[in-house]
Amino acid sequence: MSKSVPEKNARSSGSAGSRRPPQKKEVLFHGIPVSPGIAMGPARRFGQSEIHAIKPSELKRIPDSQVEQEVELFYSAISKTEKELASLTDKMNKGGVDENTTDILEAHLLIVQDKVLHNDVIGRIRKNHISAEQALNLTIRHYLDVFSSMKDPYLKERADDVKDVANRILNNMTGMSRSTLESLTDPVVLVAKDLTPSDTALLDRKKVLGFSIENGSRTCHSAILARSMKIPAVVGMQRLYDKVQDGDSIIIDGYLGMVILHPEEETRDFYREKMAREKELYFDLLKESRLAAETLDGYRLKIAANVDGLQDAGELFSLGAEGIGLYRTEYLYMNSAMMPSEEVQFGVYRKLAESMKGEDVVIRTQDIGGDKNALFTSYHEANPFLGMRAVRLYGEYPNIFKTQIRAALRAAAFGCIRVMFPMVTCMSELNHLLELVETCKNELRKEKIPFDEHLKLGVMIEIPSAALIADEMAKKVDFFSIGTNDLIQYTLAVDRTNERISSLYDPAHRAVLRLIAMTVEAAHENGIPVAVCGEMAAAPEFVPFLIGLGVDELSMSPVSIAAIRKVIRRIRRSDAEAIARKALKEGQTADAMREARKLLERAVPDLVNVISHKIEQ
Amino acid sequence: MGQTSCTEHFVINNEKGLHARPAALFVQTASEFSSSVDVMNEDTKTSADGKSVMSMLMLAAPQGTRLRLTITGDDAEKAMETLGSLINRGFDE
Question: pLDDT confidence of A175, banded at 50, 70, 90?
């Protein structure tokens, strides 16, 4: 599949660097491509923060108004670290660890609580007007310098204790609000062990050319975000992090899922050319972005965008979106400890509706849980994807839901807002949510606040149980939206964030296709439309399946819209239907898959060659 | 009133010197008293706050280091007795 890469690159990374040659050797790493595009630039590691030397030129002066906030930040990191160490000591005591180990932890605790340390750090924040993070770094570096000048080997080792403790404090500090991600000055290629969705949401597209992470899968939320932010990304990139140093030259190939460390000049040239070709193709694709997404035999689909609050409407229109099929509201919550108020949400939704100029905007009520956590919920569950997630949280926090619904009802008076509920499993859940919506309407009526009486409500079909009773649900709501990522994960019992079983994550599994077919049938019998808003909608090779199954709307990352529109405009619905019929038959799914690929190779050869990385696998 | 100050000299005799555990033990013990505890490394002439572990670690006091303890406050004598004994016992190592 990597035939487009120069021969000399097609070596494995296994034998890399037993002895380090003076010129660093080009090394190739393979992972999973999750967000298309190419990124080339200096590497920047992002992982557990470590105490490091700061050059005077790197010191950033903070405004007066922020000084006391930084002091507070330092103190809260201290108290967090204290708790962490206390619980660690506790655990060790229970585990019967020898006394020496717990003594060391107690010594660490004393360091954390040490007044001299506190005063040194806070003194630096106040005197030099620098962040708590930088002040801690400077203070600890100073201590470490003293240690390294000591002659006694035992005492020299104390530096490790201090460093260990300081790293703990540092991580508690950066994990809390700002992070190194926000303080990037020049564009870099991020190489991380892991990126949480909230880390990813913080990325500045101008500063982060692309990223690679060690964990993750195609459908983990960081991957989805990368696509929606149009940042080239590769996940499941084992062993890379430890081999990279800040500033190393690196290339991320988001099409083929590769990372090239220390690329030679020849390789860099090759990729420069590839980037140019990519731009050209994309430019070509966009030429059709105002044309209808209609098959050659006249079947009209709607193409909408999945959005998380980071894109503006103008950009969505220029990419060819005919509305927003999924507005993820979690990102309003994830980086704040507090739930945004009704007024704040109303403002956001109203602005959104107005900017979309009469096109539909489907707001998904919050879907926190699973791999997306908000600071105000802190459940520790063995099985978060099967636990307190999305609508299941609404029972405990009814105001989260009501606040959102009230804000949406009010905003709907200003544009085409619709609302859908994620993770619904049964009728009583759905009925309860619908009742709560009525309650909100009654309240608003009483308060004489204008709102849309006829706000359209939908249900996400993303759990097999919902698909299996779609006929009952269809009578209660105005539309369905199939969330294929979760539907696949729950149907096949495959954790979508677990890379070890990623080969079992099969969108073309007949069980999945049957559930989609059932959902479409139930919807159409009741005269309501069905959208697909999962990743499947953005994968060219599955478009024939979805069209063939009768889906009315596809909603996807804005970056994928142009390519999918082109696929739709180049194929026939009748061919797609034949493929879908075949795929549903025992023993013929693989054949159908091959036919879909052939169809694409005939219909959109240029796209197959450059954009679609999965076709040849 | 009742403020006393006393000074005494000691030698660190445990093998590993004043590393994290002894320093922590010293600080914990010193903190039980209200008196202030000043510790001076007589070899390097650097001083430390006997109630700060960071400060004590920075003293750089391996085995054989001569220390001068100056304790000031209401319970200075009792503190000197307790801390002195701790050092002389080699921090029970």
Answer: low
For residues A312, A318, A322, A325, the Cα torsion angle rounded to the nearest 10 degrees is -40
Measured CB to CB, residues of chain B less than 8 Å from chain A are 15-21, 23-24, 27-28, 49, 51-55, 57-58, 60-63
State the Cα–Cα distance between residues A522 and A469, nearest whole angstrom.
Answer: 9
b or e along A88-99 (b: 16 or more beta carbons within 10 Å of the residue's beta carbon)?
bbeebeeeeeee
Interchain pair B19, A154: CB under 8 A: yes
Provide the token pair at A435.
Answer: 């009742």
d(CA A412, CA A330): 19
Mutate to test the interface with B, among A82, A118, A149, A158 (most CBs of B within 10 A): A158
Angle at A306 between CA A468 and CA A549, to 5 degrees: 40
Q: What is the pLDDT of residues A258-281, one digit of tens each?
A: 899 999 999 999 899 888 877 888
Question: Within 13 Å and on the Cβ side, how many CA atoms surround A316?
Answer: 29
| Residue B68 phi, psi (nearest 5) | -115, 120
Shortest CA gap B83–chain A (Å): 18
Quick one: which of A296, A288, A304, A290 has its CA closest to A576?
A296
Count other Cβ atoms within 10 Å, centred on residue A507: 21
pLDDT at A25: 87
- Mind listing the pLDDT tens digit for each residue in A95-127? 655 566 667 778 888 899 998 899 999 999 999
Q: Cβ of A443: how many Cβ atoms within 10 Å?
A: 15
- Cα angle for residues A142, A140, A124 (degrees, 5° grid): 80
pTM here?
A: 0.61
Q: How do strand A233-235 and strand A32-35 relate by DSSP bridges?
A: antiparallel
DSSP letters for A441-455: HHHHHHTT----TT-
- Residue B11's closest CA among B72, B77, B91? B91
The pLDDT score that the predictor gives to residue A176 is: 40
Tell me whether 0.90 is exceeded by the ipTM: no
From chain B, pick out residues whose CB is under 8 angstroms from the CB of A110.
24, 27-28, 53
* Residue A549 near residue A580 (C-beta atoms within 8 A): yes
Span A327-333, average pLDDT: 81
Most confident of A155-164, A333-342, A447-456: A447-456
DSSP conformation letters of A355-406:
HTTTS-EEEEPP--BTTB--TT-----S-GGGSS-THHHHTT-HHHHHHHHH
Contacts of A124 (CB under 8 A, 6+ apart): A130, A134, A135, A138, A139
Higher pLDDT, A197 or A348: A348
d(CA A140, CA A159): 9
Give the Cα-Cα-Cα angle A516, A518, A519 (nearest 5 degrees).
Answer: 65
Instruction: Return the residue of B nearest to A150 by Cα.
Output: B60
Q: Which residue of B has its CA nearest to A159?
A: B57
Under a CB-based contact definition with an 8 Å cutoff, are residues A307 and A558 in contact?
yes
